[in-house]
Amino acid sequence: MTRWIGTSFKMNKTLSEARAYAAGLSSALQERPELLHGVQPFIIPPHTALAAVAAELTAQSAPGEPDVPGRGSVVRLGAQNAHWEDDGAWTGEISVPQVADAGAELVEIGHSERREHFGETIETTRLKVASVLRHGLVPLLCIGEPAQVQERGETAAYILEQARGALRGLPADQLSRVLIAYEPIWAIGAQGRPATAAELREPFEVLSREYAGKVQALLYGGSVSPENALEMLLIPGVQGLFVGRAAWTLQGYLEILRIASTAEKPHVSGLG
């Protein structure tokens, strides 16, 4: 099983900082190829740094790989958002063809901050997933419930509604390219509290019953750190981690890659 281990920089890092991170990551993975054992790394910088990060990743890719920014690197490059239309009068937006042109191979969709602050809905996530797939990229669909929903014991219904709505009508071959990241809102951000393994078992049981073997991978994100990464990876159904601030330093990200590359997961019938 391949574990997807990635991070989004959110609205952090200047062009030079993002470029330095990418160059350092490429060099580290060349020097320590064992970090890639059973692991698919991905990073999602701000849109302003996409092309520069793609160039850094490609510059240190294996000889003979295609000379296309972002392609040929062992690190998959993502964009934090993209509009569902290919072009048009959408001031301030960026399209899937544009992020692909800058080197992105995947697109983050439906993060809780996008839903809360920018009006992202289940319907717009569906439109964006469809656009990303139409252009041959990988959708990274984020789902997760607020604390009030968790406290009422309604997590399963809430996250299934988000996932089913965004993925409605997709044929099996398209669904198989999707990544789903379960990120409970109460566990993310500077004020979030780390989830316990017990709290995550039911959501991943539910998501695994619905999507294991159908989507590319089910990831967990929310206050992930080197201290709890292994515990999170050993939860049945978890096939990767979407890491926040703990991976914003290169050393932090490399440590989580190390943990993922050496973790052994027991087989659980019907899950991951």
TrEMBL record:
Its EC number(s): 5.3.1.1
CDD domains: TIM
Reactions listed under catalytic activity: D-glyceraldehyde 3-phosphate = dihydroxyacetone phosphate
Family annotation (InterPro entries): Aldolase_TIM, TIM_sf, Triosephosphate_isomerase
Alphabetical keyword list: Cytoplasm, Gluconeogenesis, Glycolysis, Isomerase
Pfam families according to UniProt: TIM
UniProt-annotated location(s): Cytoplasm
GO terms of molecular function: triose-phosphate isomerase activity
Domain of life: Bacteria
GO biological process: gluconeogenesis; glyceraldehyde-3-phosphate biosynthetic process; glycerol catabolic process; glycolytic process
The keyword Cytoplasm is assigned to this record: yes
Pathway named in the protein's UniProt entry: Carbohydrate biosynthesis; gluconeogenesis; Carbohydrate degradation; glycolysis; D-glyceraldehyde 3-phosphate from glycerone phosphate: step 1/1
GO cellular component: cytosol
KW Cell division (keyword) present: no
Class of this enzyme: isomerase
Family according to the record: Belongs to the triosephosphate isomerase family.
Assembly and oligomerization: Homodimer.
Protein name: Triosephosphate isomerase
Organism, as annotated: Nesterenkonia aurantiaca
